[in-house]
Amino acid sequence: MAKTINVPEISKAGPYSHAISTGNLLFLSGQVGTLPNKTQNLEEQFENIMSKINKILNAGGLGLENIVRTTVYLSKKEDFPKLNELYSKHFVNNPPTRTTVVTGFVSNEVLLEIDAIASK
Asked: E strands along 16-106, which residues?
């Protein structure tokens, strides 16, 4: 049976769970890195996202090393090289599979969003 995981300190923009655990897999909802009333660059948003993802994984008894798949949504294709630089700092050995999509967001302040799948 699936188990929902929510981290109270991480806000949500709608009616969804931060993660769902089923079998040996943990499916994480997409996370954005914006903060209220603060303009942030790509690196700041990326680090906020990774912090959120880590907290959600920890709540499910896992860590970044358990991630097997990510999807990264970027607002600008020009940010792809910087994304690779930032990503490689968090996933040094055996990085997970990844798809990167350039897309628009509901909020103009959002520069990227990342969702993930982790395995126990």
From this structure: 19-22, 25-32, 67-74, 97-102
